[in-house]
């Protein structure tokens, strides 16, 4: 998307310092890492609320444990560098309406709920992480993307405008992250496989429009 400051933090160097000694991270690097960890931890519980009850009940315990672990690591990284980072707050279904109706009123089925949650919450995740990295994401683009995304994936809009469609296509690239995690830790998770297929299909569909 050509956002200013996208290369302000050297990702490869950050990874190497995390592997060897996290106390060598600069304040900017530590802020980036801690913000990402806190966002990752805070992301999943609100996400689960967008999905069917059986899904939420099955995952809520590991999700909360994961959040606790990530918060501990984030606190250690931030503390070593002397920086303060706050966890973001992600939207829950009760927070969002589509044309005055509850956001989920026009959505049915696991896939459609999954896509609505992913499109909205990953936008919020990216905006939080980008701010911590010093990346200049235009506020009007974020607001426009949020408005169109909720309406489109909530069943009240026929299409996305070109800049929003491109932005969302890039945000849906987290199918690669899901695949790497599944492979790296030998999870062989059917659930991860479902996530990857849904995300990949939506990214490709947006690219073809």
Short description:
By secondary structure, this protein is mainly α. The protein folds into two domains: 84 residues, no CATH class; 112 residues, no CATH class. 67% of the residues lie in helices and 2% in strands.
List the helices and strands and how they pair.
Elements: H1 11-20, H2 27-49, H3 53-81, E1 97-98, E2 101-102, H4 110-133, H5 139-153, H6 162-171, H7 175-184, H8 190-208
Antiparallel strand pairs: 1-2
Helix pairs in contact: 2-3, 2-4, 4-5, 5-6, 6-8, 7-8
Total tally of structural domains: 2
How many helices?
Answer: 8
Overall mean pLDDT: 95
Distance, first to last CA: 18 Å
Shape: globular
Q: Output the radius of gyration.
A: 17 Å
Looking across the biggest beta sheet, what order are the strands in? 1-2
Compute the number of strand runs.
2
């Amino acid at each position: 998307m050509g956002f200013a400051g996208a290369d302000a933090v050297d990702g490869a160097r950050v990874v190497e310092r995390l592997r060897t000694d996290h106390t060598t991270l600069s304040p900017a690097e530590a802020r980036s890492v801690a913000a990402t960890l806190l966002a990752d931890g805070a992301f999943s519980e609100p996400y689960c609320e967008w999905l069917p009850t059986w899904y939420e009940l099955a995952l809520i315990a590991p999700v909360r444990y994961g959040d606790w672990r990530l918060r501990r690591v984030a606190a250690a990284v931030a503390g070593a560098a002397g920086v303060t980072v706050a966890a973001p707050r992600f939207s829950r279904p009760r927070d969002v309406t589509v044309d005055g109706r509850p956001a989920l009123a026009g959505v049915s089925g696991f896939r459609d709920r999954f896509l609505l949650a992913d499109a909205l919450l990953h936008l919020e995740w990216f905006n939080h992480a980008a701010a911590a990295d010093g990346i200049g994401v235009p506020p009007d683009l974020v607001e426009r993307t949020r408005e169109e995304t909720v309406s489109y994936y909530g069943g009240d809009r026929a299409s996305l405008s070109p800049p929003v469609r491109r932005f969302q296509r890039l945000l849906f690239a987290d199918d690669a992250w899901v695949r790497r995690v599944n492979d790296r830790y030998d999870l062989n998770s059917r659930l991860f496989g479902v996530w990857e297929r849904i995300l990949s299909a939506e990214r490709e569909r947006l690219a073809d429009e």
